[in-house]
Amino acid sequence: MLTWGDVRRWDPAAIGAVADALNDGCTRIIAVNDDVESMARLPGWLGEAATAASTRGESLTSSLEQLVAEASAVRRGAHEVQIALDRVVAFVRETDELASRNGLIVGSGGEITSSGGPSEPRVMAELADRVEQILRRATDVDADFAAIMQRALRGEITEQGAGTLAQAADAGAAQSGLSIIRPPENGSPGDNKAWWDSLSDTAKVALLRGNPGLIGNLDGIPATDRDAANRAVLASEIARLRGDPKVKGLEAIARRLDQPEPRAFLLGLDTSGDGKAIVSAGNPDTAMNVATYVPGTGSELAKIGGDLNRSDKMWAVATTAGSPSTAVITWLGYDAPNGLTDAASEKYADGGRAALTQFQEGLRETHQGTPSHNTVMGHSYGTTVVGHAARDGGLAADELVFVASPGVGAHDVSELHLDGVDQGDVGEHVHATVAEHDMINLANLEVAGYDLVLGQDPTDADFGGQVFTSAPGTDGFGGYSQEAHSEYWEDNNPSLNNLGQIIAGKPTT
C-alpha cells in the first residue's frame, strides 16, 4: 500500500532515464542486427556452412525482434508513466504547500496535524480529501507500469510477424498502452466526466499525448486536462496554418497562455471556418466566481485578442470588487454573424445556444468543492445567443448579463431560466446596460408598437431585469456612434466596474 511518504519521494526523472536508456538500447540492437544480416548473407557464399549461418542469423533476428518489441513496450510505458508521475508529484507539492500556508503538516502516513497554530476544519477536510485522491491516482499509476512490466517479463508482448526490427519496435510500443475505451458518442458533460474519471492517470496521459484533439473540446473534462490537450493542438495549428489570417488569433492565444497572472486555460479550439476558441483567465474548476463572456457580431478567431483583453479586465475588476478567486472565460464557441445584415437573423443564436448550454453544464460537472457563482454575459449579438439558451431549456448559471443587446429572444425575464435561481426570483439575477450613444439603440426602436426581429430591449423597464450604469459613450451622427458600442470595457467606464461587481456577486450601480 503506497503512503504519502512514498509518493513524496517519487522521482519522475528516474523513470525518464529508464525510457531513454531503453531507447538507446533498441537503437544499438537494430544496428547489431544489420551486422548479423550482412554476415549471414555474404554474396556468393554457398554450401552447408552458408545454410547454417543463414539459419542461425534468422534465429538471432527473430530473438532480437522479440527483445526489441518488449523493450519498446517498456520504453513507451515508462515515458507515459513519467508524465503521469509528473502530474502526481505536482499535486503532492501543491497539497503540501496548501497545508503549509494554513499552519498544517501532512505526515508521511497521510495524517494531517497542526504545526502549532490554530487549524481550520474546512482546510483540514480539503487536505484529507486531496491526500486520498492523490494516493488513489498514485496507486493506479504504479499498477499500470507494473502491468506493462509483467506483460514484458511473461513474453506476452510480441513482434506480431514484423518484417524488420523497426517494425517490431513499433508493434511493441503499440502493445504497451492500456486498453482505453473511447468517450461516449454524443455524451452529455456528465457522461464525459464519468468516462474520464474511470481512466487511470497513465491512460489519461496516453490519450492527451496520442489524441489531444479528441479531449480538448469535450465538455465535462477538467480544465487542466482540456488545456493540456489544446495547447498541443494550438502549437501544431500555428505551424500548419502559416499565412492564414486565423494565425493572428492563434498567436494572440499563445501569448496569453504565456502570461503568468492570472494563468490562462485553453478550453476549446477549432480552426475550421472562421474558427472557434474558448480561453479562461483563471481556473474555472477551482474559482469561486466564474463568468462566461460571449462576444457578438464580427467575432472570429483571427480577432480574439481584443476579447481576451476584455476578459482580463473583468477578472481584474472582479478581484478588486472582492472576489476571492475568479475565472473569466472568453467563449467564442459559436459561428457569429459577420455583419449587420447577418445580425438581423436569429439563426446564429439558434446555432450557438446548444453549445453554450452544454459548456455551462460542463462547468458545473468539473467544479471542485462548493458550487461556484456562475455568470453568463453577452455583448451585442452575444446577448442574443445567451438569451436563446436561457429561454430554450435554461442555463447552468446564477446571473445573466446583457451588454448593448439588440434583443434576447424574450419579451420579459419570466421567459428566461437559470438553474441556480428560483423562477420567481429570475428578475433579480438578469442585468442589462446600454450606452446612451450606442448605435445598437437604433435596432431596439419599435415599429408601430412591435419589436424588431430579435426581441425586447432588456434595458426596458417592462422587461423586468436590473439595469446598471454605463457611460454615455462617444457621440456621433444623430446622437449614435459605432465607437460607443465597444467602449463598455474602457477603464473609466462605470460599466466595467459594474461587470466586476456582478461577477463577484455584489450589487451594481
Uncertain runs: 446-451
Provide the β-strand percentage band: 5-15%
Rg result: 29 Å
Largest sheet data: 8 strands, mixed
Shape, per Cα inertia axes:
globular
What is the structural class? alpha/beta
Distance between the termini: 58 Å
H and E order:
HHHEEHHHHHHHEEEHEHHEHEEEH
Number of strands: 10
Q: Spatial order of the strands in the main sheet?
A: 3-4-6-5-7-8-9-10
Count of helical segments? 15
Assembly of the depicted chains: single chain
Give the % helix.
40-55%
Mean pLDDT equals 85
In words, what does this structure look like?
The protein starts with a helix and ends in a 6-residue tail after the last helix. The relative contact order is 0.07. The strands form two sheets. Strands 3-4-6-5-7-8-9-10 form an eight-stranded mixed sheet. A two-stranded antiparallel ribbon has the order 1-2. The protein has 509 residues and is of the alpha/beta class. The protein has 15 helices and ten strands.
Q: How do you describe this structure in short?
A:
The protein is α/β, with parallel strands linked by helices and 509 residues long. It contains 15 helices and ten strands.
